[in-house]
Amino acid sequence: MTVHELLKNKNITLYRLSKNSGVPYTTLNDIYHGRTSLDKCSAETVYKLSRELDISMEELLAPYVRERISFELYKSNVCHRLKELGDIDFIIEMLKSDEISKLYRRKWYPESLYLLAMLDYISRENNVPLCTKYEPLRSVKLKEILYPSGVLAMAMVGDGEKLKKKALSNSIPEFVRHNIVENEVRNIA
User: Fold this and answer.
1) Confidence (pTM)
2) According to the CATH classification, is domain 1-67 in 2.60.120.380?
3) Mean pLDDT along residues 80-94
4) What are phi and psi of 146, to 5 degrees?
5) Which end of the chain is more exposed for a tag (fewer CB within 10 A), N or C?
6) CA–CA separation, 30 vs 155, rounded Å?
7) Taking 70 as the threshold, does the pLDDT of residue 65 lie above it?
């Protein structure tokens, strides 16, 4: 849904959204009237609006984005959402929204599997039973291992295979299951 549609559905004004979200009214007015596209706004603006409108950043951006956002930005958005909500509320939101299935149906496999890995990891960390709905996806692996961009950059200037191997061995098991290298989801700026 567009910002226009969300405001109408939630019965709030641009002014109220601006005050509650901390996004300047002029920015919102430009988005609302199509003078600025939401996908050109800063991640902070999108984050503040998604939080206030109680919708994921991806869902908020969907009507404005012609292409997928980079996987690195997607991972960052998920980590920020986890930090903002806390573990249990994150689990609840993921299960309610069923974003994992939605992304998988769109064939956005890295994003879907990253989110599933995050859900499973946070569930394990909090002794919450795994949602059986996603059992078939737990055996799905990406064709190639996805390394963080920082690891790939360091591999280009150093001993590439050794660095990649070390990153893989230090990765969180729930992510490795899907061929995604991730070792830090909580220490974000």
Assistant:
1) 0.67
2) no
3) 94
4) -100, 115
5) C
6) 42
7) no
